[in-house]
Amino acid sequence: MNRIIKKVVSILGSLVLSSVFLNSEDFYSFTNNNYFRYYFGSINVSPDIKDKIPSVNAVKADVRYSFAVGDFSKIKDYSFSYLNNLVVDAINASVSSIDCVIYSINMKDIPDALIAARDRGVKIRVIIDNDHVYPKPDTQIKRLINAGNGIEVRTLKGTRNYGVTHNKITIHDKSIVTTGSYNWTFQATFSNYENMIVLKDRKYVDGYIKYFEWMWVKARKISDGPSPILPEGYYGTPPQSTDYIYYNGYNFPLYLFSPGSQTENKIAEMIDKAKTSVDAVTFTFSSKPIADAIIRAYKRGVNVRFLEDIDMAKSSSMAKMLYEEGVPFKWMGGRDSKGAMHNKFIIIDSKILATGSFNFTTNASVNSFENVVLTDNSTVVNAYLTKFNWFYSQATSPQSANEFDGVSNLSSETKDYLGDISNFDSEKEID
Asked: Could you give the residue numbers annotated as active site?
């Protein structure tokens, strides 16, 4: 009888201890171990326990999407330099998935980080501009294409002859987004002036996830070969922002995705709502709606400052028009002789920032895959304003309209799509 009682007590004790262990962090760490997964992967863990099991280095689970999320607390909210390190840090912190859309790659550190992430079980999807894969990809693009299981690469081409996939987006564990002007290249890293913003608010992240999925289903597998030339409007309308920043009687969308969102017209509308100031910088400039809005703002007494890359501006009829209308206009290059002023952002009334991959061109609005994100986060807006102030203090003003000497040498068609199809300086990265 005593033996039976001892047995019952022993069983009850084991059950209590097991219950404690199953609800402890030690159990989550144990079940997260790769060896546990390999040898005991067929064990059915109850949903209430399974949902709490994070992946390696994970700190929380997103219940809405039921996936593990890495610790991104050390990833800065924005940056203007060492942008390759920011992307690598975000990749290294990822534990479940990484989705990327990129225009150009020739540096190895980000591909290295993506391959290492794949090797630890992270699912990688990459969309690359069609014309950077065909007819011959760069070595680093080829590495990703040939990386094997766990990294899937697709290509995407804009419409007409001029459209490109110009986004520079990464999405990590469906939890944070990086975007901005930064391509994964030597020039962008060491010679250009660039920016990157990091989005952690769910409203932004969800929008970018939808945009990526929208692009992914339209992108071509490598086995499908290069894309043919496609007509304007072929892709339809991308996901639209359903949340807004209300300011000056206007609903500023949280984001704008191209092609198909009339982005240049909506940016012009935003400029029309400015009451005190418009500070704008772009790499290339051919959008008449934006140029007209800038001139209207200046003529109604708004404090306008416009900045463009010097080589691109000299061949821009819209830049020349601003100058001739008296709009305060400056130009500058990059960090060195090979570099560019590659930023593309606008600050309205020192309150609203719009930044992303979108150059102020009709092509970017109509034919290319682009993104613009808007925020009224005062810390971020002020950081960009401080950076713009520094840029503007370092830039110079044209001495006469004659300095826009590249304009007269361009065909009208090239003027419309300036910067997206013509390389005026073989040493300078275009777009």
From this structure: 342, 344, 349
Give the pair of three-digit tokens for residue 103.
């225009």
- Complete DSSP assignment for 82-112: -HHHHHHHHHHH-SSEEEEEES-B--SHHHH
Determine the Cα–Cα distance for residues 155 and 82; give it in Å rounded to an integer.
Answer: 27
The pLDDT value recorded for residue 318 is 97
**Amino acid at site 162:** Y
Angle (deg, nearest 10), helices 109-119 and 83-93: 0
* Residue 51 C-beta-side C-alpha neighbours within 13 Å: 8
Chain position carrying tokens 């894309």? 227
Dihedral of CA atoms 191, 83, 182, 236 in degrees, nearest 10, equals: 180
* Axis-axis angle for helices 288-299, 317-324 (nearest 10): 10
The one-letter code for the residue type at 130 is: N
Structure-token pair, residue 301: 């007494």
What is the DSSP-derived secondary structure letter of residue 329? E
Instruction: Report the chain (431 residues): mean pLDDT per 10 consecutive residues.
Output: 53 44 36 34 39 38 58 96 97 98 98 98 98 97 97 98 97 98 98 98 98 98 97 98 96 97 97 98 97 98 98 97 98 97 98 98 97 98 98 98 80 43 39 62
First to last CA, the chain: 84
CA distances from 316 to 40, 239, 311, 405 (A): 64, 31, 9, 9
DSSP letter for each residue of 154-220 = EEE--STTT--B---EEEETTTEEEEES--BSHHHHHTSB--EEEE-SHHHHHHHHHHHHHHHHHSE
As given in the structure block, the two tokens for residue 344 are 């593309």
For 50, 52, 63, 340, the CA distances from 47, given in Å and listed in that order, are 5, 9, 12, 53
Domains of the chain: 78-224 (3.30.870.10), 244-416 (3.30.870.10)
Q: Which two tokens stand for residue 363?
A: 């092509």
Q: Helices in 219-361 by DSSP H: which ranges?
A: 263-272, 288-299, 310-313, 317-324
Give the contacts of 136 (CB within 8 A, at least 6 positions apart): none
Would you give the DSSP letter of residue 238? P
Residue 357 has phi, psi (to 5 degrees) of: -95, -5
Asked if residues 278 and 294 have their Cβ atoms less than 8 Å apart, the reply is yes
